[in-house]
Design goal:
This protein is mainly alpha-helical and 367 residues long. The chain is 53% helix and 7% strand. It has 3 domains: 45 residues, no CATH class; 136 residues; 149 residues, Up-down Bundle (Four Helix Bundle (Hemerythrin (Met), subunit A)), CATH 1.20.120. The strands form 2 sheets. The protein has a two-stranded parallel sheet with strand order 1-2. A two-stranded antiparallel ribbon has the order 3-4. Helix 8 runs antiparallel to helix 9, helix 9 runs antiparallel to helix 14 and helix 10 packs parallel to helix 14. The chain is elongated and about 100 Å long.
């Protein structure tokens, strides 16, 4: 009689008889028989309760999100197992020798996977998505997330650009479940990612930034937002540098769309001033008699200073300039402040630009 954790027992139930027979056969081979012994394996579930069950919050990744990820990998024809063969990859996550075989010629999953994916190569490239032994679609979310992280591990995916592109696609879906893959360290200059829950405030900031990038159809802005999102906790200086570049790209993009000339010597302050003037960020039409009018003007004027202050912060602490040996960087909280300021600027000027575009369009009564 073998005790199995309840979730695993439930997963094995459809094939319980076959699994028990395979275990029985294995025992018969391993234990010498005197001709009178008879035994059979039986699996029973372990029913237990987590000591912290009241406070535990299990990870949930909806089935629809998982299906979208699988469909996206198929559409992009991504080699799920990367530079490894199927058994090498799956052995990083599962104990294949303990999982049953679907081929009677082999005693475990390792044998039949190797036979059908390496020797014969007669299984579909995406067989893993539909194999009940690896319940990625409906199984534990933590295993699913680990599977995704292993897909882009430097050993599995040594090409940096390929790994970054896959992470971007995965995160597009995972954000719907308030999760994402983030860079946690570097191995031989390549990023290693782990799943992390999204914090509500940071999540909203980056989503606003992504919306701005989409509305401007600006790929450079989207990449800078992604870089900030990954770096804000792990590499604050990179996040600060990216925040400055984000504001600069936004200014240049909108000025270009408005046909405003940008000089070769224009720095961040020049770009921000031109944008403020072109968009009329501090409108003259605010009634001085209105309550709080001066405060509104002051806030809008200060918004223009974000660009210059980010440029100074990048010069002092961010990437892009050499540092002496005694340099000490800032903390993630400073990076979060810089990033939040940059996103606030980009969000406001982008929305203002869209508003000006709408008002500039002729109406039916104008025609």
């Amino acid at each position: 009689m073998l005790e199995v954790p309840a979730p695993e027992f439930a997963r094995l139930r459809p094939k319980l008889k076959d699994v028990c027979e395979q275990i029985t056969d294995a025992l018969a081979e391993a234990i010498p028989s005197n001709g009178h012994d008879f035994f059979a394996a039986r699996l029973i579930p372990i029913v237990g309760q987590n000591e912290d069950w009241r406070s535990s919050s299990p990870v949930v990744i909806p089935r629809a999100v998982r299906r979208n990820i699988f469909d996206g990998l198929r559409l992009e024809q991504v080699n799920v197992f990367g530079a490894l063969d199927d058994t090498e990859f799956l052995s990083r996550i599962y104990e294949l020798r303990r999982l049953p075989s679907t081929d009677s010629r082999y005693k475990d999953a390792a044998g039949d996977i190797y036979q059908h994916r390496v020797n014969n190569f007669d299984w579909d490239d995406y067989w893993i998505f539909d194999d009940d032994r690896f319940p990625l679609l409906d199984g534990p979310a933590d295993t699913f997330l680990r599977f995704l992280a292993e897909m882009v591990h430097p050993v599995v995916r040594p090409e940096r650009e390929e790994a970054a592109t896959i992470v971007e696609h995965l995160n597009d879906q995972l954000r719907q479940a308030d999760w994402h893959l983030v860079e946690v360290e570097r191995i031989a200059g390549r990023a290693r990612y782990e799943p992390r829950p999204l914090t509500s405030n940071g999540h909203r900031s980056f989503e606003r930034g992504r919306s701005a990038a989409d509305s401007l159809d600006a790929g450079a802005i989207a990449k800078q937002i992604q870089r900030m999102e990954y770096a804000v906790e792990k590499d604050p200086e990179l996040a600060i540098g990216s925040a400055k570049e984000l504001v600069e790209s936004c200014c240049k993009t909108i000025l270009g769309k408005m046909g405003v000339e940008i000089g070769k010597s224009d720095d961040m302050n020049d770009l921000a001033k031109k944008l403020a003037k072109s968009l009329d960020l501090v409108p003259e039409g605010i009634d001085d008699q209105a309550k709080g009018a001066e405060c509104i003007k002051r806030i809008l004027s200060n918004l223009n200073q974000i660009a210059g202050n980010l440029a100074n912060l990048r010069r002092l602490y961010g990437t892009g300039h050499g540092k002496d040996g005694k340099h000490r960087g800032l903390q993630p909280r400073h990076a979060r402040l810089a990033v939040a300021s940059a996103v606030a600027f980009v969000d406001f000027v982008t929305e203002t630009y869209r508003d000006r575009q709408v008002k500039a369009k002729p109406t039916s009564t104008d025609r």
